From TrEMBL:
UniProt entry tagged with the keyword Transferase: yes
Organism of origin: Planococcus plakortidis
GO molecular function: N-acetyltransferase activity
Record keywords, A-Z: Transferase
Protein name as it appears in the record: N-acetyltransferase domain-containing protein
Domain of life: Bacteria
Matching PROSITE patterns: GNAT
Length: 148
Protein backbone atom coordinates (compact mmCIF):
# COMPACT_ATOMS: atom_id res chain seq x y z
CA UNK A 1 0.00 0.00 0.00
CA UNK A 2 1.29 3.46 -0.93
CA UNK A 3 0.56 6.34 1.44
CA UNK A 4 2.13 9.62 2.44
CA UNK A 5 4.64 9.10 5.23
CA UNK A 6 5.87 11.61 7.80
CA UNK A 7 9.65 11.88 7.65
CA UNK A 8 9.61 14.20 10.68
CA UNK A 9 8.64 11.18 12.81
CA UNK A 10 11.86 9.66 14.20
CA UNK A 11 10.91 6.03 13.55
CA UNK A 12 9.86 6.83 9.99
CA UNK A 13 13.10 8.75 9.42
CA UNK A 14 15.04 5.72 10.70
CA UNK A 15 13.09 3.45 8.34
CA UNK A 16 13.88 5.79 5.44
CA UNK A 17 17.57 5.83 6.34
CA UNK A 18 17.71 2.04 6.79
CA UNK A 19 16.76 1.40 3.17
CA UNK A 20 18.15 4.58 1.66
CA UNK A 21 21.78 3.90 2.63
CA UNK A 22 22.13 0.42 1.08
CA UNK A 23 20.11 1.41 -2.00
CA UNK A 24 22.27 4.47 -2.70
CA UNK A 25 25.43 2.42 -2.07
CA UNK A 26 24.35 0.22 -4.98
CA UNK A 27 23.83 3.29 -7.18
CA UNK A 28 27.22 4.57 -6.03
CA UNK A 29 28.81 1.33 -7.25
CA UNK A 30 27.03 1.64 -10.61
CA UNK A 31 28.22 5.22 -10.98
CA UNK A 32 31.70 4.75 -9.56
CA UNK A 33 30.92 7.71 -7.28
CA UNK A 34 30.70 7.18 -3.53
CA UNK A 35 29.84 10.69 -2.39
CA UNK A 36 26.09 10.54 -3.01
CA UNK A 37 24.76 12.79 -0.23
CA UNK A 38 21.87 10.50 0.77
CA UNK A 39 24.33 7.77 1.82
CA UNK A 40 25.55 9.82 4.77
CA UNK A 41 22.33 11.70 5.51
CA UNK A 42 21.51 11.74 9.22
CA UNK A 43 18.16 11.01 10.86
CA UNK A 44 17.91 14.72 11.71
CA UNK A 45 18.56 15.75 8.11
CA UNK A 46 15.85 13.38 6.88
CA UNK A 47 13.44 14.79 9.48
CA UNK A 48 14.21 18.35 8.32
CA UNK A 49 13.63 17.56 4.64
CA UNK A 50 11.03 19.75 2.96
CA UNK A 51 10.17 16.97 0.48
CA UNK A 52 6.88 15.09 0.47
CA UNK A 53 7.38 11.35 0.95
CA UNK A 54 5.16 8.54 -0.30
CA UNK A 55 5.96 5.14 1.16
CA UNK A 56 5.31 1.64 -0.10
CA UNK A 57 4.49 -0.45 2.95
CA UNK A 58 3.57 -4.05 3.29
CA UNK A 59 4.45 -5.24 6.75
CA UNK A 60 7.31 -2.69 6.74
CA UNK A 61 8.60 0.18 4.58
CA UNK A 62 9.90 -1.38 1.37
CA UNK A 63 10.38 1.75 -0.72
CA UNK A 64 9.56 5.41 -1.08
CA UNK A 65 9.51 8.31 -3.46
CA UNK A 66 10.02 11.92 -2.43
CA UNK A 67 9.30 15.09 -4.34
CA UNK A 68 8.63 18.79 -4.26
CA UNK A 69 5.93 20.44 -6.31
CA UNK A 70 5.93 24.16 -7.10
CA UNK A 71 4.66 26.35 -9.90
CA UNK A 72 3.28 23.48 -11.96
CA UNK A 73 6.56 21.54 -11.86
CA UNK A 74 7.23 18.52 -9.67
CA UNK A 75 10.75 17.32 -9.07
CA UNK A 76 11.41 13.79 -7.85
CA UNK A 77 14.27 13.87 -5.38
CA UNK A 78 14.44 10.23 -4.31
CA UNK A 79 13.15 6.92 -5.54
CA UNK A 80 14.40 4.24 -3.18
CA UNK A 81 13.62 0.54 -2.83
CA UNK A 82 15.00 -1.78 -0.18
CA UNK A 83 17.67 -3.78 -2.08
CA UNK A 84 16.12 -6.99 -0.69
CA UNK A 85 12.96 -6.03 -2.61
CA UNK A 86 14.53 -5.14 -5.98
CA UNK A 87 12.73 -6.40 -9.09
CA UNK A 88 9.36 -6.70 -7.34
CA UNK A 89 7.72 -3.76 -9.15
CA UNK A 90 7.90 -1.44 -6.12
CA UNK A 91 9.69 1.42 -7.91
CA UNK A 92 7.26 1.17 -10.82
CA UNK A 93 4.30 1.25 -8.41
CA UNK A 94 5.69 4.30 -6.62
CA UNK A 95 6.30 6.26 -9.84
CA UNK A 96 2.91 5.27 -11.24
CA UNK A 97 1.14 6.30 -8.02
CA UNK A 98 3.00 9.60 -7.91
CA UNK A 99 2.22 10.41 -11.56
CA UNK A 100 -1.47 9.64 -11.02
CA UNK A 101 -1.76 11.90 -7.99
CA UNK A 102 0.39 14.88 -9.04
CA UNK A 103 -1.23 17.95 -10.54
CA UNK A 104 2.06 19.21 -11.97
CA UNK A 105 2.22 19.90 -15.70
CA UNK A 106 5.83 18.72 -15.80
CA UNK A 107 7.90 16.28 -13.77
CA UNK A 108 11.69 16.36 -13.56
CA UNK A 109 14.01 13.66 -12.23
CA UNK A 110 17.75 13.03 -12.33
CA UNK A 111 19.64 9.77 -11.89
CA UNK A 112 23.14 8.51 -12.40
CA UNK A 113 23.78 8.09 -16.12
CA UNK A 114 25.21 4.65 -15.37
CA UNK A 115 22.06 3.61 -13.48
CA UNK A 116 20.49 1.77 -16.41
CA UNK A 117 17.57 0.25 -14.43
CA UNK A 118 16.45 3.71 -13.24
CA UNK A 119 16.87 5.22 -16.69
CA UNK A 120 14.78 2.46 -18.27
CA UNK A 121 12.10 2.83 -15.61
CA UNK A 122 11.70 6.58 -16.22
CA UNK A 123 11.77 6.14 -20.00
CA UNK A 124 9.03 3.50 -19.73
CA UNK A 125 6.77 6.21 -18.26
CA UNK A 126 7.53 8.57 -21.14
CA UNK A 127 10.24 10.66 -19.51
CA UNK A 128 12.59 12.14 -22.11
CA UNK A 129 16.28 12.66 -21.57
CA UNK A 130 16.91 16.36 -21.28
CA UNK A 131 20.55 16.85 -20.31
CA UNK A 132 23.58 15.14 -18.86
CA UNK A 133 25.75 16.92 -16.33
CA UNK A 134 28.96 16.10 -14.51
CA UNK A 135 28.76 15.73 -10.72
CA UNK A 136 32.41 14.77 -10.27
CA UNK A 137 35.29 14.22 -12.69
CA UNK A 138 34.12 11.50 -15.07
CA UNK A 139 30.80 10.95 -13.25
CA UNK A 140 27.55 12.09 -14.83
CA UNK A 141 23.88 12.28 -14.02
CA UNK A 142 21.08 12.52 -16.55
CA UNK A 143 18.03 14.69 -16.11
CA UNK A 144 14.69 13.54 -17.51
CA UNK A 145 11.48 15.49 -18.03
CA UNK A 146 7.90 14.35 -18.50
CA UNK A 147 5.26 16.73 -19.76
CA UNK A 148 2.30 15.42 -17.83
Amino acid sequence: MITEIDQTDEKTARDIQSIQRPAYRIEAELMGFHDIPHISETIEEIQQSQETFLGYRDDYLKGFISFKEEGGIAEIYRLVVDPLQFRQGIARSLVDHFLQQTHAAEVIVSTGTANVPARKLYESFGFKEEETFEVAPGVTCTQFRLVH
